[in-house]
Design brief:
Rossmann fold, single chain, NAD, alpha/beta, about 500 residues, 21 helices, 10-stranded mixed beta sheet
Length: about 500
């Protein structure tokens, strides 16, 4: 599996360990700070060559040190410059050394009053912030927002938690964010992603091997995570070699969701798709489908599919209706790769442990695709817990034994072994009825291709997001299905 260095995400705590490892290996830590601060200044000078003045706001730690280095670079460039700081007389280590090299006056941060024409260099707090910003910082944030001032953030906009993407009281909305070596989860998780502006990653001279050694199993989702696991059709392929997906339909007035899943699976490359319908829904499903096969749902048919090696994966839940019968059906399917979506998740809300125990006992290949509400019903303690969406998804995956697709504009895919990915390519237009049913069908198609569950889920989420981009504004679930073949990455 290809994991591109550029897609690695590393938390603030781990990045601190990387910095310590670099210093311990003999790398000059002040040189790294100089590289960081000068990168911030270079980008700001390039982006705003006609700035009225650069206002550098420096905090009490190493992020502030980056700001002082940037201020010195502005002074050398002859730019109009003002510097404001917190605790500038109490700085230690490299940050104190950076402050000592600045000849200009450093005024208290509380004295800064925003004015039109300012370009703010935000070097107050870095990605490790875990408390609400002070009142003076919140005031400056509010004033800068009101005046719509350009803001270049060092590492992450002050006020954002680099681990969770959450706002700590108030946060700058940056036009540009300059971070170093690798992105943090908070750069991609919402609302952080929307506040970072254009995100620039600079190599400041830490060997990549040191970053890799501390990085966890977290990446931005993309083809590098899943392309090696997906096998496309060959000249010798027949329909069953490309996988056979069976989707279970609800009754005649609620069968549309299952049809969306079935057609999405077909468009996503499954060689054969069967819609398994109650007898009363067969006619309505037949009226809407051509290439998708139909089969009446009864116990004999289900036993036959479970024993048929040509049936590769199941989808159950979309439009099915919450019932004890659905719980029994879902549990019976776990001998083959299964996507549990929508009603199949809600059906276990009162007894999720029975599902999780069955998955673990069977060693089943299961992908669950909950949105926020469904996640809360299955994992109420996790949904209400503090911490990042990534951590909640990881804990849910470990508990359930399934790959969790925790849906949203910042969908997180998590595996029971701790691997996780944050998806970033989904447009807001995907928040439409039936979109999740389409995702369930794509996921089943990936499982039918014999992809492992984590890679299948990553592929499906990415292709789903890319389909939304291709379909464009005003998309519907039907138009989303139509463009799935155009959304595959070129390498697949």
């Amino acid at each position: 599996m290809l994991h591109e260095f550029e897609r690695i995400l590393i938390g603030p705590r781990e990045m601190g360990l990387v910095d310590a490892d670099a210093a311990g290996s003999g790398i000059d830590s002040f040189r790294l700070m100089q590289n960081a601060g000068e990168a911030v200044a270079a980008l700001a000078l390039a982006r705003y060559p006609d700035s009225g003045r650069f206002v550098v706001l420096c905090g009490p730690g190493n992020n502030g040190g980056d700001g002082y280095v940037a201020a010195a670079a502005f002074a050398r460039a002859g730019a109009s410059l003002c510097i404001y700081g917190i605790g500038s007389e109490d700085l230690k280590g490299d940050a104190a050394r950076a402050r000592a090299r600045v000849e200009a006056e450093v005024a208290p941060l509380s004295a800064y009053a925003c004015r039109p024409g300012d370009v703010i260099i935000d070097a107050i707090f870095g990605a490790g912030l875990s408390r609400d910003v002070p009142q003076d910082v919140a005031r400056i944030i509010a004033d800068a927002t009101k005046l719509r001032l350009p803001i270049v953030a060092a590492d992450i906009p002050s006020g954002l938690d680099g681990e969770t993407g959450e706002i700590r009281g108030a946060a700058f909305s940056a036009t540009d964010t300059v971070t170093f070596m690798a992105r943090k989860p908070g750069h991609l998780l919402l609302p952080g992603r929307e506040l970072c502006g254009a995100l620039h990653v600079f190599d400041i001279g830490i060997p990549k091997r040191l970053v890799m050694a501390r990085a966890g199993k977290l990446w931005e989702n993309g083809p590098g995570l899943f392309s090696d696991a997906l096998a496309g059709p060959t000249a010798e392929s027949h329909k069953y070699a490309r996988g056979h997906v069976a989707v279970f339909s609800g009754g005649p007035t609620s069968s549309g969701a299952a049809r969306l899943s079935a057609t999405a699976a077909l468009k996503a490359g499954a060689g054969a798709v069967t819609l398994v319908s109650p007898s009363e829904a067969l006619a309505v499903n037949a009226a809407h489908l051509n290439a998708v096969m139909l089969r009446e749902a009864d116990s004999r048919a289900i036993r036959a599919m479970l024993g048929d090696h040509r049936v590769s994966a199941f989808v159950v839940g979309p439009g099915y209706g919450v019932s004890a019968a659905l719980r029994e059906l879902a549990l019976s399917l776990l001998t083959k790769p299964t996507v549990l979506d929508a009603d199949a998740l809600t059906a276990f809300a009162s007894e999720p442990k029975s599902l999780f125990e069955a998955i673990h006992a069977e060693g089943a290949t299961v992908v669950m695709t909950p949105h926020e509400g469904e996640f809360g019903r299955l994992f109420p303690d996790l949904a209400s817990a503090s911490g990042s969406k990534v951590e909640r998804a990881r804990k849910a995956a470990a508990r359930s034994g399934a790959v969790i697709v925790y849906k949203g504009s910042d969908t997180v895919i998590a595996a029971p072994d701790g691997r996780a990915a944050i998806n970033t390519n989904a447009p807001a237009d995907l928040a439409t009825a039936g979109s999740g049913d389409v995702l369930a069908g794509i996921t089943a198609a990936m499982l039918a291709h014999a992809a492992p569950a984590f890679e299948a889920a990553c592929a499906a989420v990415w292709i789903h997001g890319r389909s939304g981009q291709v379909a464009g504004g005003g998309l519907t679930a039907e138009t989303l299905v139509d463009v799935i073949p155009q959304a595959f990455p070129e390498m697949v």
